[in-house]
Amino acid sequence: MKGYILDTDTWIEFFHQRGRIAAHIADTPVNQIFASEISIAELTYGALHSKDVDKHLKEPKMIEETFTVLPVRNWIQDYAEIRNSLTNQGLQVGDFDILIGVCARCHGLTVVTHNTKHFSKMPDVKCVDWMVD
Q1: Residues of the chain with pLDDT under 50
Q2: How many Å apart are CA 124 and CA 10, to the nearest integer?
Q3: Among 39, 54, 97, 124, which residue's Cβ finds the most Cβ atoms within 10 Å?
Q4: What is the pLDDT of residue 133?
Q5: Which class is domain 4-128?
Q6: Do 46 and 12 contact (CB within 8 A), yes or no?
Q7: 126: left (phi over 0), alpha (psi -120 to 50) or beta
């Protein structure tokens, strides 16, 4: 599969219309832009925790209606192996980042994130930062 899976931080920047993220998305075929169930969960939590719940609840819905949302349940073993490897190396990476990274790796996608520091620690996970590109 060719394409990009956007990390939650990138979706947030997209909805806030910061950087060139909207331009990158517009320049990329819709069938090459993906989201993870993890990002949908994080965005939904953020919406419920915000001052404008109704407005922000529409954001994960828009993603689900426009782009392919990939499940993470198929990659639990890969997650456990990467987390174990990182822990054994003394490296700290958040569980949600690992799950998004594993999903990207298993589908051959590049993670779009402003948090390249975490994703670059994972083996065979490619990442790019559209906030600076």
Answers
A1: none
A2: 20
A3: 39
A4: 66
A5: alpha beta
A6: yes
A7: beta
